[in-house]
Amino acid sequence: MNYLKLKRFSHHLQVSFTRLNVICRSWYQLYAPDSLKHRRNTDQTRLSDSSILAMLIWQAELGIESQRRFCKFFVGLSHSRFNRRAH
Fold first, then answer.
1. Within-domain flag for 36
2. Tens of pLDDT along 44-77?
3. Which residues span the domain enclosing 53?
4. Among residues of the chain, what percentage have pLDDT more than 90?
5. Which domain of life is it from (predicted)?
6. Which residues contact 47 (CB under 8 A, 6 or more apart)?
7. Is residue 22 in some structural domain?
8. Alpha-carbon distance 56 to 28, whole Å?
């Protein structure tokens, strides 16, 4: 996840997001139902479900309420697709 547009604190944010992503990946494997993990076309997605969960937690941690504003931090991340998958 090195697509951040932020320059000043980007290294600190990437380190904390990497840790959060590892935690969310392990929780997703343990607690997500099989119907969610084995749905159609999951191999064609750019972001995994665990990465989206990590991004939502990170958004709450940063205190950003608008998903559109949060998606502007990332290059190539569509806010409509992120919002759809988050719901």
1. no
2. 777 888 888 888 888 888 788 888 888 887 777 7
3. 48-87
4. 1
5. Bacteria
6. 55, 77, 82, 85
7. no
8. 14
